[in-house]
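Usage

Read records sequentially. Each one opens with the input sequence:
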Amino acid sequence: MRDPHSVIIRPVFTEKANYLKESENKLIVEVDRNANKVEIKRAFEELFKVKVEKVATVNVRGKMKRWGRSVGRGPAKKKAIVTLQKGERLDFIEGM
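and closes with the structure output:
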C-alpha cells in the first residue's frame, strides 16, 4: 500500500466544495493522478480517522495557457469527492 500522504495532495476550497461539505457531508480533495478509489478511501480513513462511505473521482484536464505566441497546457489533476458516513464530521481549518 502507498503512503497516505502521497495519495492525498491537498483539499479544494471553492464555493461548490464548501456547499457540498455543509449540505451533503462531502469533501473534495486533490489526489495523485494514479490513485484509485480504494487507495483514496484507505488513505483518507488512515489520515483523518473518519469512516468513508463512498469515493467519486474526476479527471481534470489542464487548461490551455498562452505565453506570447507560444501555447501550452497547464498540469492535469485528479479530484476526489469523498462522502463521509452519517455522524462523521471533518473540518480542515478546525486545527488552525
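Summary fields computed downstream for this record:
- The two ends are 30 Å apart (CA to CA).
- The CA atoms of residues 19 and 26 lie 9 Å apart.
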